[in-house]
Amino acid sequence: MRYFLTEEQQMIVDICRQIAEERVIPQRAEMDEKEIFPTDILKEIGKSDLLRLFLPEEFGGMGTGIFEVCLAAEELARGDLGVATSYAASGLGFLPILISGSRQQKEKYLPPLASGEKLAAFGLTESEAGSDVGAIRTTAALDGGYYVLNGTKQWISNGGEADIYTIFAMTNPRKGARGASVFIVEKGTEGFSFGKKENKMGMRSSATRELIFTDCKIPKENIISREGMGFIIAMKTFDKSRPAVGAQAVGIAQAALEEALSYSKIRKQFGATISSFQAIQHMLADMATSIEAARSLVYYTAKVIDSGEKNISRLSAMSKLFASDIAMEVTTNAVQILGGYGYMKEYPVEKMMRDAKITQIYEGTNQIQRNIIALDLIKRGAL
Ligand SMILES: Cc1cc2nc3c(=O)[nH]c(=O)nc-3n(C[C@H](O)[C@H](O)[C@H](O)COP(=O)(O)OP(=O)(O)OC[C@H]3O[C@@H](n4cnc5c(N)ncnc54)[C@H](O)[C@@H]3O)c2cc1C
User: Fold this and answer.
1) CA dist., res. 182 & res. 175, Å (int)
2) Quick check: pTM over 0.85?
3) Are 309 and 232 in contact (CB under 8 A)?
4) Using one digit for the tens of pLDDT, what is the confidence trace for 131-150?
5) Distance 235 CA to ligand 1 centre (A)
6) Which DSSP letter does residue 198 get?
7) Any ligand 1 atom below 6 A from CB of 361
8) Pick from 256, 273, 318, 381: most CB atoms within 10 A?
């Protein structure tokens, strides 16, 4: 399918596809089995300037938009979701700096993230604060020229691997969500350590880890914006990052369709290839149609965001919700088309089905996306 991409956009797709074909796909089963973090592949992604896509030229970026990030995320996820998530999680980590950071913070932290020399991570979730982000218990207390952080973050993508972390903590716990603030914390800061590394169902090449803060002193100027702005910055970040989760979902679904289609043309039962059975043909047709619908919504959302439109929460939530539900459905149907072989690890579709599930959960579960969409409908009307 063509989306009238510019030469530069097509080049982004081609580079990502080449990395996926040559570097990711040959290794993905092993990375999944042994939970290998794709350090070398991410270095190559950095060298190919793909981390620059997120950022303005003045901070070492290419000045492109969310649309280009979505193109890259889709192609990388077509190879392996763990690689695509490690890539996108760095963007998620530095978005709070990009959206609300000071000029000095941007000049200091963004260029090494743009070049891929460093990776970022986003630390919001805690054991008692998942969907209910206002329930975070990590605290940041002002003490002279420092904030002192105490608490534990859970399930942080790129945890342990990233160099720069944006961490949400309560500066005024009595105010609930309005008492949250966000800070930049560098790896190696005294009092900042890494805890349990998770053993996950899918997306196993990505690192998901606890971050532990014990009397961790960070300079006062590492606060992003000002006290109390944490929740607003988190929501603004998700508005911009969710289409990339939708794009990842489209990428996995596309990969599953490709596997199911090629298998259906070689597998014979009852003396005929299974692609000659109408039941299989209709599944393939529905899978392809759903993927195209999801891709269109993701691309449209990204273009609306890049146009500078302010009210983007509804569309952003819709693109993540729809594409991730499609990815779950399509990958499950791909396993069905491969039958018993689909259930075996010698074919990649069972991994795609395991991987797809997380796109319905992280960056806000799909129930939360439906809440966002419904509240926006009620507040601003149906159009
Ligand atoms: C592999 C992985 C990587 C992650 N990476 C990061 C990361 O990099 N940074 C980070 O900060 N977090 C990260 N997370 C956390 C992720 O964003 C949360 O898991 C997610 O927001 C859901 O929170 P929870 O798991 O605590 O579920 P809960 O909030 O406990 O929800 C449990 C169930 O209840 C439903 N539910 C909850 N509240 C409502 C409601 N109001 N209405 C309707 N249904 C509701 C949910 O939809 C879900 O089905 C990651 C999680 C995973 C699993």
Assistant:
1) 15
2) yes
3) no
4) 999 999 999 999 999 999 99
5) 14
6) P
7) yes
8) 256
